[in-house]
Write a structure and sequence with these properties.
Blueprint (H helix, E strand, L loop, with lengths): L7 E7 L5 H15 L3 E5 L5 H11 L8 H25 L3 E5 L2 H11 L4 H7 L1 H6 L4 E6 L2 H8 L13 H17 L4 E5 L4 H14 L4
Parallel strand pairs: 1-3, 1-4, 2-3, 4-5
Helix pairs in contact: 1-9, 2-3, 4-5, 4-8
This protein binds thymidine-5'-diphosphate (TYD).
Amino acid sequence: MDMSKKGYFITLEGCEGSGKSTQLKKLEEFLKNSGVDFVFTREPGGTPIAEQIRKIILDGNNTAMCDEAEALLYASSRVQHIKEKILPAKNQGKIVVCDRYIDSSFAYQAYARGLGIEFVKGVNVYAVENCMPDLTLFLDISPEDAFARKGGADEGDRLEQSGINFHKKVYEGYKTLANDYSQRIVCIDAKKGADEVFDQIVKVLKEREII
Ligand code: TYD
C-alpha cells in the first residue's frame, strides 16, 4: 500500500510579519467548521524534543552560533517532528498544517545566510526524501511592507535582530523557490486585508480538492 497517498501535508511560509499567524488562526477555525480531521503544528518545534531544540536556536544569547550549526539544528528538529508527528498523522489520513517547514531552511539558511541550496538540501535529506509538503502556501509580502504593517521588529529575539537586508534576502529566496517549485508552492498576495488573503487560501484548497 502506498502510504504517501493518504492524508495531506500543507505548509505555510512567509517573511516575518507576513500575517502567517492570523491566517493560521483563520485556517484552523475553517477546518474545525468543515469537520475534516486535521493537525496543526509548527517549526522549529512541534514535539517536546523539537521544542527544546527550538529554544536553543532562538535563544537571543546564542549569538556565537555558526550558520552551519543553526542549519543542522533546524534539520534535527525537523526529522524528530516528521517521525514523531507529521508522518504518523498524515498516514492516518489527516490534513497536517505546519507553520514553516523546509522552505524556511531554504529561504533563511540557504539564501539569506548564504549556505547554498545544496548544503541545506544535504542536511535535510530525510525531509527531502520522505516528507515534502503536498502544498506550500507562501504569503507574499515584501519585508519593507511587512515591517511597516507590524510596526517594527521585536527586540531580543536572535533572528529578529538580523535587520532589513537579511529579510530582503529571505524574501528573494522565497521568490526564487516559488519560481523553482511552482507546482508545489503557491504565492498568496499577502498585501491585501486578512479576509481577502484568506479567501485566496480557501480558493487554492478547493482547487486542489483538499476541502
Ligand atoms: P518564530 O518566532 O516562530 O517566527 P515566525 O512567527 O516568523 O514564524 O521563529 C521562527 C524563526 O525561525 C523565523 O525567524 C524563521 C526561522 N527559521 C529558519 O531560519 N529556518 C527554518 O528552517 C525554520 C523552520 C525557521
